[in-house]
Amino acid sequence: MEETFVPFRGIKNDLKGRILCYKQDWTGGFRSGIRILAPTTYIFFASAIPVISFGEQLERYTNGTITAVQTLASTAVCGIIHSIVGGQPLLILGVAEPTVLMYTFMFNFAKDRKDLGQELFLAWTGWVCVWTALLLFLLAILGACSIINRFTRVAGELFGLLIAMLFMQQAIRGVVEEFGIPRREDPNQTAFLPSWRFGNGMFALVLSFGLLLTALRSRKARSWRYGTGWLRGLIADYGVPFMVLVWTAVSYIPVNDVPKGIPRRLFSPNPWSPGAYSNWTVIKEMLNVPPLYIVGAFIPATMIAVLYYFDHSVASQLAQQKEFNLKKPASYHYDLLLLGFLVILCGLIGIPPSNGVIPQSPMHTKSLATLKHQLLRNKLVSTVRKSMRKNVNLGQLYNNMQEAYNEMQTPLVYQTPSGLGLKELKESTIQLASSTGYIDAPVDETVFDVDKDVDDLLPVEVKEQRLSNLLQATMVGACVAAMPVLKKIPTSVLWGYFAFMAIESLPGNQFWERILLLFTAPSRRYKVLEECHATFVETVPFKTIATFTLFQTAYLLVCFGITWIPIAGVLFPLMIMLLVPVRQYLLPKFFKGVHLQELDAAEYEEAPAITFNMLREDQDPQARITRVDSGEILDEMITRSRGEIRHTQSPKVTSSSPASVGDMKPAYSPRLSQRAYSPRVNELRAELSPGLTGKGLELKETPSPGPSILGKSPHSSSSS
Q1: Cα Dmax for the chain
Q2: Of 69, 371, 447, 489, which residue is least crowded by CB atoms under 10 Å?
């Protein structure tokens, strides 16, 4: 994004870029066919369930002035408008926790004022929304979103982890409240006797943990060993909403044996109930608000404008991070301008405004990346099988796959075609091909595993389109009419889903991965290298990683603590914005520039796994021996039912493989990336059980076969 503070230039550039690909935004979605329903359903539940919960919170805190009907209506109206005329269709809009906190604060202020009171509360919030929109217009016109360029991964991932903590906090708080008496309920009811309250709480634990565990498990269904491929894919795509239905059904099992109200379920008036639609005509009452309060509305409007500017821009940034390899331009300035119009619309009809939300927005992008992967994979698998029937060699097979990949790329009128292409062939595949005698031998599945190797070749790409956003917003709107059905869902299922969303947002967050690395025993850190890992693990000293992570953790805890402070808690995004000058001016005084660029890289860069059970041909076996405690080795083995022991991480061996790994000769391939050995690997390996004596087992270890670029920072040449 161009950094410009010239009035209207940012909005003009955004419109110019997005209009050129507007048609493709729609055709790309429709060409996906029925597969588009998988990310649509996934993000619908991720959007609707928190909004329903926030609506129930507002219903309690505003004495029924705002309910789940209003929060669902706001999410649907704003989502539909944004999906049609918005700039970035990957951005998901919804009523967020800061909005709930601000509306609660404003209600508590207004209800005790004789000349305002609960009767004019919505009319006064209408004026707050008018002032908020004017401030958002000003920010968009002056190009304030250009500051987002300085909002680096350190701040973005810290904010994402903070949102995950808030979701988990809401889940824990909700489960704890299941043991108590809800507000605005008669404590003399049978269901609120101590014994029944305890029973309700324990049942809530079963339902919430049941949903959490089964939802997490179903998302990984594609890696299961059981079931056919289409069944595993179906479970992975639709398992989470199905689990919501399953655990809702489970909640009705004891319904005849317990008092009414156990388990507790959602509470909200139906949209056709008397008085439920009185807020839609709030515009008529706005002129009844005293002038002093109209002017005073500017104060909370300033706070809300800052919150929306930050939340909306950061949610959009996290939805289009560099590692997603998006091809279409961003639209920060125009989307902020559109948000101003949406805020005015919501204020005039008496519903809380919606803005870009986290973690739903990046979750939407990830689900569309999965969709694009499936579409590309199906095309490549079909191409590979056709090529194998023609007995082509490995080079011809790769060329055929590259051509099929290019056919699946949508040509964009405003830019050159994607230069990503397929990833390089794996070294093991090249070696297996050369082991047959010559590299031009016909390829079969003993050399190229269609089910696994195709996945390794595909880069990360996203199906950028508008249809999934429009459909999910429309489904949220349908929930308003389906309120009698939604009220059958237990609140404990909602708390389980909150926890699921918190955990689901963690993969890919380098901050979270570094926290886990801190808790990894020194003798087990080599296991990090045996899986795909971020490059900083090999290029940055562990002491630097630990210091940087502890700083981020302390800052995260300060931000989380601020959210507990009444009123001031809604300003926690200001602490996140403060990270911009901290990163730019303070951190370089304590960390080397090259280390900061690795730990705060704009793109999530992964390094391939480095195996420890294979020895390079050009190395002295005695020079590459490290002693490891026998317990560490046994953890890598499993005992089968008949008593044999086998390694869980054995190299790929097929009928065409040589007798031993050492017999494999490296085969040259122009597609094989040249990689240089990383000295950082030695440092990690040197930490393996340093105090052991000759009683330990000897483990031969090597870096990955062939050279590696992992030791060379892609930024080091420009760093100091």
Answers
A1: 92
A2: 489
Sign of CA dihedral 579, 538, 710, 400: negative
Q: Within the chain, how many helices (H) and strands (E) appear? A: 28, 8
Closest CA to 501 of 221, 247, 212: 212
What are the backbone dihedrals phi and psi of residue 252, each rounded to the nearest 5 degrees, phi first? -95, 0
CA distance 639 to 500: 33
Print the SS3 string covering 134-170: HHHHHHHHCCHHHHHHHCCHHHHHHHHHHHHHHHHHH
Per-residue model confidence (pLDDT) at position 354:
94
Distance of CA 377 to the CA centre of its chain: 22
Question: What pLDDT is attached to residue 462?
Answer: 87
Q: What is the pLDDT of residue 702?
A: 39
Q: Which residues contact 17 (CB under 8 A, 6 or more apart)?
A: 328, 329, 331, 414
Residue 174, token pair as written in the block: 């909700």
Global pTM reads 0.77
Give the number of other Cβ atoms within 10 Å of residue 84's Cβ.
13
Q: What is the pLDDT of residue 236?
A: 86
What whole-number distance in Å separates Cα of residue 220 and Cα of residue 504?
Answer: 11
3-state DSSP assignment of residue 689: coil
Beta-carbon contacts of 653 under 8 Å, excluding residues fewer than 6 positions away, are none
pLDDT < 50 stretches in the chain:
416-417, 614-720
pLDDT 10s digits, 437-446:
656 777 777 7
CA distance 503 to 359: 10
Q: Check residue 98 and give its pLDDT.
A: 82
Using CB atoms within 10 A of its CB, is residue 500 exposed (0-12), middle (13-18) or buried (19+)? Answer: buried
Strands 697-700 vs 625-628: parallel, antiparallel or unpaired: antiparallel
Q: How far apart are CA 136 and CA 301, in angstroms?
A: 10
**Which SS3 state, helix, strand or coil, does residue 647 take?**
strand
d(CA 469, CA 91): 8
Return phi, psi of residue 477, to 5°.
-65, -35
